[in-house]
Write a structure and sequence with these properties.
Elements: E1 3-9, H1 22-34, E2 44-49, H2 53-64, E3 72-78, E4 81-83, E5 89-92, E6 109-111, H3 112-120, E7 126-132, E8 143-145, H4 153-157, E9 162-166, E10 175-177, H5 184-195, E11 205-207, H6 208-222, E12 229-233, E13 240-243, H7 249-259, E14 261-262, E15 265-266, H8 268-281, H9 285-320, H10 326-339, H11 343-377, H12 383-396, H13 400-431, H14 441-453, H15 458-492, H16 498-511, H17 515-532, H18 542-548, H19 557-564, H20 574-603, H21 623-635, E16 658-664, H22 670-675, H23 677-683, E17 687-691, H24 701-709, E18 715-718, H25 724-732, E19 736-751, E20 760-761, H26 762-770, E21 787-790, H27 797-805, E22 817-818, H28 822-831, E23 835-840, H29 841-844, E24 851-852, E25 855-856, H30 885-889, E26 896-905, H31 909-921, H32 924-932, E27 936-937
Parallel strand pairs: 1-2, 1-3, 3-7, 7-9, 16-17, 16-18, 20-25, 21-22, 21-23
Antiparallel strand pairs: 4-5, 5-6, 8-10, 9-12, 11-13, 14-15, 18-26, 19-23, 19-24, 19-26, 19-27
């Protein structure tokens, strides 16, 4: 008599059948216990891994052929079980496949009838077949099903002295458990013999019925939807498979404990039974407790894992559905059954999840209320407020993504409200004739209707109306001031002389009055003068003639004007002289003050080279001294060394000593702070620089200029030209505010890396941000909505430049999302497939999460802001995109903006510091560092221009 076994495992299949990696491990584990001398003690255990049909059939035939009556033959199969359309079972092989209609190609599998025939023709009367494969049933989540079908196993494989064990009934699936090395059924078959727990009657031998009962009980505990089956004829139930060596009391007690384990705990009856057994076996309470703990822990851990899986899935469901729908509840019940959990297990868990989620929602609402109040008080938020909100987020333990969602939504609401307020303000300005006249009743009625349409409250519009009212009053006051000066001038001289007319023109500019504003006023006053004095028109009084009589003039015209501003006491009568001075001296002073910066006011274009502007000290008593000082400054306004080529920082003259605060644009100037300032400080240690942040809000061009006007900075960085109101505020404070161009900056357009689009033209870019183009398919991309992002044009110099240069001063579309910083914008675009953003090329080109686009005036001349070829995101950060400085230097790339140093010409050390800083940047060394930082130098570098065909930004050619 011999015991022989054939173990077949099929893990690899053709397309259409899932791979079953556990199958090969199943036959390895089964071989280990069957051929072990103290367990199965089989004489021969053969394995077949991933056989083809012929090889499998030959192996099965060899197993049962040539056997004697007393031999024991065991066939084990782990793999896919497949039925045909008549319900007949086939064992899948490594080449088994299905046709296009999903029907089995029978020639690629081994029919169960073949096994039946071979077994029936064998003389062996102790035959065992173990099928760990699928026949039919439901699919459980987390399990990999083998196949389905309806198969009559007993009819197809039954026989005398024969036993057939199946992993599931004919109407159920057999499963592989994810995360386990073995299939569920095989795992417990092996465990029953290895541990000896399958010897249920304690006779030291495991029979087929005991083996099946043990494995079936274990399978149902972890997978309730599976029902392993046994089919035996005559002596088949009592075929002995393995032996169990005598056990020590502790091992026997361990097995008894396992029999009473339910859901990780010992049942009440089991507890009483184990207490009796412990005493019978002579074990102490400590020994028994240690064994119980060791046995229970894996079960408890498994039970805890199942609870955690259910809790995680239920949490995700509750986040999506406040109350689970009927369909969701059905799915949850199915999950519960798959995990082998009862209602009493899941109900407390669900209640805990819901309570925790409600608490979290309350915390989110608390943060939302605080954030809303903060942005209503100040927008953009100051650094201090940002820090306070961040601390609140940490204390409430809120996730970054949830906080970001709240902030984006509230910020969007605030921006939309601001847009409504801006619309109302624009209409109010139109209704007041450009902030010149009070509202009429009809215009007031139209504005009230607009207020209702925009859903604005009286509290919303009160600040706007108050400000516009103040500006109207200021305009009327300026008209009165000009009228007074004109009347007094005409009183002494009519028709007006050229000099007086020029002074009045300058005074008009300072007051911000247009020719359209003053023309009706002049016509009325002149008409009144002609009516009052019809005789001697054109004949100035003797006193006035003496008052304006010039003295012999020096060689400089400005000095002549300064000298004439204070005539000698013998040239006119005191009373007349005082009257003339009161009318024109202020206009002369302001007019001379405009000479140095007049070109800027008329053209609003940045200067290509540094220039000193005149300074007026309105507090100086002597008007002649003021005029002389101004005239002298005008004559020497352009430093001579700027016409020469200064090589490095050490060669620049008139660099003051001390510590100087500077600030302003952060987005554009950040790379320059990093690369240029350390070199500058090393070369000129006496010229100490300290970057200063604004007290509230984020650093920007506008913030820097405000701080400069408020005497908080010595000079400022800016990525936009000065505004006229900033210039006039400086004049009112007694000095000139001017700007010096030191570099150019490329503006890059970026999108999500996976957006497939070749580039954009400037007209397309304009239409995207003005709302004419809203889907990427309108510019040759996918059918995907566009989400434009932008900084606020009120604070950002880049945004103001983009608004003017690209959008041609048209308003942003409603779908534009405003972000506080470039970092925030990059994060948004990286998460949004339809996102687009523009910003500083040196900051954006090397980013890994976004893709820069080629830009051009026309679609056939798209110029990339990066050096080709484009580096894919998969290669970043190992390799990063580099700036296409050649295209920017030569002007091929179409979006370039200037960078300025804003200088306060007050005659003091701040003026010296601002001019010195600009002059340092305009040296060859400074311009080279500017180029290395990713910007375009405005001077042609001697060692760099030979690489370019032309140099469009040379100062000498500007």
């Amino acid at each position: 008599m011999i015991k022989i076994a054939l173990l077949i495992g099929v893990s690899e299949y053709k397309p259409g059948l899932n791979p079953l990696p556990q199958a090969l491990k199943d036959i390895e584990a089964m071989q280990k216990v069957l051929q072990h001398q103290d367990m199965g003690d089989f004489d021969e255990v053969k394995t077949l891994a991933n056989p083809e049909p012929l090889e499998m059939q030959e192996g099965i035939e060899m197993l049962f052929s040539g056997r004697t009556k007393d031999d024991l033959a065991l066939l084990f199969f782990s793999g896919h079980g497949i039925k045909d359309d008549t319900g007949r079972l086939y064992l899948a092989t490594s080449i088994t496949r299905k046709n296009r209609k999903g029907q089995l190609v029978k020639a690629t599998a081994v029919p169960a009838n073949f096994v039946h025939d071979i077994m029936s023709n064998s003389r062996c009367r102790r035959e065992i077949v173990i099928l760990d494969c699928c026949f039919s049933g439901a699919f459980a989540e987390g399990m990999a099903a083998k196949d389905d079908g309806v198969v009559d196993v007993q009819r197809q494989l039954g026989g005398e002295g024969r036993a057939v064990l199946t992993a599931s009934t004919s109407s159920q699936y057999s499963f592989e458990e994810q995360g386990s090395d073995l299939s569920v059924y095989t795992r417990y078959l092996v465990e029953g013999i290895e541990t000896g727990d399958a010897d249920l009657d304690g006779d030291g031998v495991v029979s087929i019925d005991e083996w099946h009962d043990y494995a079936s009980t274990k399978v149902r505990a972890v997978q309730p939807s599976m029902s392993p089956g046994i089919y035996a004829v005559r002596e088949g139930f009592k075929i002995r498979v393995a032996k169990i060596p005598p056990e020590e009391p502790k091992e026997k007690y361990r097995k008894e404990v396992k029999l009473f384990v339910s859901r990780g705990e010992i049942s009440l009856v089991g507890r009483r039974t184990l207490d009796v057994l412990r005493r019978q076996m002579g074990l102490s309470e400590v020994e028994a407790a240690g064994i119980e703990k060791e046995v229970l822990e894996p079960y408890r851990e498994e039970f805890r894992n199942k609870l955690q899986q259910y809790e995680q899935i239920f949490s995700e469901v509750i986040k999506r559905e406040k109350t689970p729908s009927k369909a969701t509840r059905h799915d949850l019940r199915h999950l519960q059954e798959t995990l082998g959990l009862k209602n009493e297990d899941t109900m407390p868990l669900e209640a805990r999840v819901i309570a925790r989620l409600n608490t979290y929602k309350q915390k989110l609402q608390q943060y939302e209320n605080e954030f809303t109040q903060a942005v209503q008080r100040e927008y953009p938020l100051s650094q201090a407020t940002r820090e306070r909100l961040h601390q609140m987020q940490q204390s409430l333990e809120l996730a970054e993504v949830d906080v970001a969602t709240i902030e984006i939504r509230i910020t969007s609401q605030i921006e939309k409200r601001r847009e409504k307020l801006q619309e109302y303000e624009q209409e109010l300005i139109k209704a007041t004739g450009g902030k010149k006249h009070p509202l009429s009743d009809s215009k007031r009625h139209e504005l009230e209707q607009l207020q209702q349409n925009l859903n604005l409250s009286s509290e919303d519009i009160a600040p706007i109306e108050g400000r516009i009212t103040d500006e109207i009053k200021e305009y009327q006051q300026h008209l009165q001031q000009y009228q007074h000066a004109l009347v007094e001038a005409i009183r002494y001289e009519y028709p007006l002389g050229e000099e007086t007319a020029n002074e009045l023109k300058r005074f008009q500019k300072v007051l911000g009055l247009s020719d359209e504003d003053i023309t009706p006023l002049k016509e009325r006053i002149i008409a009144q003068r002609q009516q009052e004095y019809p005789i001697n028109l054109g004949q100035p009084t003797q006193e006035y003639s003496q008052a304006i009589q010039p003295e012999p003039v020096p060689s400089q015209k400005q000095v002549e004007i300064a000298s004439e501003a204070e005539p000698s006491s013998s040239s006119a009568k005191p009373g007349k002289q005082v009257a003339l001075t009161s009318v024109l001296v202020s206009a002369v002073l302001v007019g001379l003050g405009l000479v140095g910066g007049g070109v800027w006011l008329l053209t609003h274009r940045p200067s290509s080279e540094p220039s000193s502007s005149p300074v007026t000290d309105l507090k100086t008593p002597s008007t002649s001294e003021i005029a002389s000082e101004i005239a002298s400054k005008i004559a020497t306004s352009i430093p001579s060394h700027t016409r020469d080529y200064i090589s490095d920082f050490s060669s620049v003259e008139k660099v003051p000593s001390g510590e100087f605060a500077y600030g302003g644009s952060a987005a554009a100037w950040a790379p320059l702070h990093r690369d240029l300032d350390p070199v500058l400080q090393a070369a000129r240690p006496e010229f100490k620089l300290r970057y200063t942040l604004p007290a509230s809000g984020i650093p920007s061009s506008s913030a820097g200029i405000r701080m400069l006007l408020d005497n908080q900075l010595a000079f400022a960085h800016s990525s936009r030209p000065l505004h006229s109101d900033e210039y006039q505020k400086a004049l009112q404070q007694g000095y000139i505010l001017s700007e010096i161009t030191v570099a150019l900056e490329g503006i890059a357009i970026v999108v999500h890396p996976e957006l497939n689009i070749p580039g954009l033209t400037l007209p397309q870019l304009k239409d995207i941000y003005t709302g004419k183009i809203t889907n990427w398919n309108q510019v040759g991309g996918p059918n995907l909505a566009i989400t434009p992002y932008s900084l606020s044009a009120k604070e950002s110099g880049i945004a103001e430049f983009f608004d003017h240069f690209v959008m041609e001063d048209l308003p942003f579309a409603e779908n534009v999302t405003f972000v506080p910083t470039t970092t925030s914008a990059v994060s948004q675009v990286a998460r949004n497939f339809g996102g687009i953003y523009y910003g500083s090329a040196p900051q954006l080109i090397g980013q890994c999460k976004i893709k820069p686009l080629p830009i051009g005036h026309h679609s056939d001349e798209l110029i990339p802001p990066y050096q080709e070829p484009l580096v894919p995101p998969s290669d970043c950060p190992g390799r990063r995109n580099q700036l296409n400085l050649t295209a920017m230097q030569t002007g091929q790339y179409p979006i370039l903006q200037p960078l300025f140093v804003a200088v306060k010409y007050d005659g003091g050390v701040n003026e010296q510091a601002g001019e010195a800083y600009a002059n340092l940047l305009l040296t060859e060394q400074g311009q080279e560092l500017i180029r290395q930082a990713g910007f375009i130098p405005i001077r042609c570098l001697s060692h760099y221009t030979d690489k370019l065909a032309t140099c469009h930004h040379d100062l000498e050619g500007s």
